[in-house]
Design goal:
The protein has 230 residues and is mainly α. The protein contains 7 helices and no strands. The longest helix has 47 residues. The chain is globular, with a radius of gyration of 20 Å.
Length: 230
């Protein structure tokens, strides 16, 4: 656990440095977009939030599969930690996207394919988190959550490809057209993605460690109750 904590600490420091550097790239290095002006800079927060939310849900998917195969509760813990991170990041992505949309489309919300599938995804994983706190048998709960964690991932590819599959006003940044970004903007996007990546991995790692410790405490309490009953 000490090694895991040290890795999380390193990631946290890298996240702090990365986020500080990203502020320079966002506000000084990247040029001002001619049409939207300073409002366009929300994009540098919105995109990393959305991407790392999808990555977090992918971790839920993989960890759930491994749990069902190995029956090791630590993978259930990883799925829970990643789901919490994904729900938080996707909520922030929806909020920043709404702020950007108000300036770009003159509306806070529109039932665009990308926005709709993202909102559905957020609700599904919120339900997943609620299920994790359900007052049912622990082993049964873990299996049900793992199954839901696998099925819920079906919406993630839809979110990613929605702007390409259907007519959408949401821009597809990483498309053949290149999203119309200047080189300096591309550099800023990459820096921000890396910085938020360090932060996401740090949060998931720390939360995973907390969940594992909580599981061990619960096991010890159950063992102690069993011994007391005897």
């Amino acid at each position: 656990m000490n090694k895991e904590f040290s890795l999380s600490a390193i990631l946290a420091v890298m996240a702090l440095i990365g986020l500080a550097v990203s502020q320079y790239f966002i506000w000084i290095y990247a040029p001002l977009e001619q049409t939207m002006g300073v409002v366009q800079k929300i994009f540098y927060f919105h995109l990393p939030l959305a991407w790392w939310a999808l990555f977090s849900f992918f971790v839920v998917f993989v960890a759930s599969i491994i749990f069902l195969i190995k029956k090791d509760t630590k993978w259930d813990g990883l799925a829970g930690a990643a789901a919490e991170s994904g729900v938080l990041l996707s909520a922030l992505a929806l909020i920043t996207g709404s702020l950007w949309g108000r300036a770009a489309w003159n509306t806070w919300w529109t039932w665009d394919p990308r926005l709709t599938t993202t909102l559905v995804m957020w609700f599904v994983y919120c339900g997943y988190l609620v299920l994790r706190t359900a007052p049912i048998n622990e082993q049964k709960r873990q299996k049900i959550c793992a199954a839901l964690g696998i099925v819920a991932f079906l919406d993630v590819p839809l979110v990613f490809f929605s702007a390409r599959l259907w007519r959408s006003i949401h821009p597809a940044v990483f498309a053949a057209r290149g999203g119309g970004l200047e080189p300096e903007m591309w550099h800023t996007v990459i820096v921000c993605i890396i910085a938020w990546g360090f932060l996401t991995l740090s949060i998931v790692g720390l939360r995973w460690r907390q969940i594992i410790i909580g599981q061990r405490i619960s096991d010890l309490l159950r063992l102690d109750d069993g011994n007391s009953g005897n």
